[in-house]
Amino acid sequence: MACCGHKKKTGNTRTSCIACVQKHVGGAEVLITEMRDGYKYMTRAVGELYQAEDEAQDWQDLHNLIRESRINYQTKLIMPDWKVLNKMIVDILIKETT
Ligand SMILES: [Zn+2]
Hints:
Elements: H1 18-33, H2 42-54, H3 60-76, H4 82-97
Bound molecules: zinc ion.
């Protein structure tokens, strides 16, 4: 099991887990916002966004937004909209746990 153990859904190429999506998006945000001395963590940040995208397949809108954010960052260095991503993730987390 490569997941945190949070409640999971199945049916996609990879098990979806909103807690892991949050973990990977958070990891990417830390890496990207702390990269003041160049882009030495860019590949890691892209990898974190890819992991988040892969684990968000059960939530199509969130999955698409993370994918689009990763591609925009990777190809044009456009910063992901962390506020929007955070809100979507937290809304799903609250729904999943209540
Ligand atoms: Zn998990």
